[in-house]
Write a structure and sequence with these properties.
The protein has helices spanning 3-15, 30-35, 51-66, 92-101, 110-115, 129-138, and strands at 41-46, 70-75, 105-109, 126-127, 141-144. The protein is α/β, with parallel strands linked by helices and 145 residues long.
Length: 145
């Protein structure tokens, strides 16, 4: 057996032994799977300005908050354009407001805003790499979009 195949097999087998991933029953009900996990601290970094991508990032943030997780979002690069994204199919600003209204915090990179001759807002206050560092350092899970 090739070394690559052995490594892949070892990786797959290790997935079944990770804490929190083994199932205690034969049912695969989503609600039961979600209940097994304790609330997490999640950091989300959005550096995209594609309407569907940003909408899905905030959709996930809203879902996570609803599950009891603590979520912080940092807009970086093109991500600082998120509040101004207009799309017929994806209500990005609506998703952002839902997240903010549920207590979620959104931070926007000040340098990235300045490059775009834009300012922060109540929804997305100006922030810095120091805040990004804090979010990453304190989060149990970090996702990038």
């Amino acid at each position: 057996m090739k070394i690559e195949n052995k490594l892949m097999l070892l990786f797959i087998l290790s997935l079944f032994t990770l804490p929190g991933y083994s199932q205690t029953s034969s049912t695969c009900d989503d609600a039961k799977i979600v209940q097994k996990f304790k609330p997490q601290t999640i950091g989300i970094v959005i550096s995209a300005n594609d309407p569907e991508t940003v909408w899905n990032a905030f959709r996930f943030a809203n879902y996570s908050v609803g599950q009891g997780d603590t979520v912080s979002v940092f807009l970086l690069g093109k991500g600082v354009e998120s509040p101004t994204i207009v799309s017929e199919d994806f209500d990005v600003k609506g998703m952002m407001e839902t997240y903010s209204n549920s207590g979620g915090k959104i931070f926007a990179c000040g340098t990235c805003l300045k490059i775009r001759n834009t300012e922060g807002s109540e929804l997305c206050p100006v922030s810095s790499l120091s805040e990004l560092y804090g979010i990453i350092k304190s989060s149990e899970i970090v996702l990038t979009f």
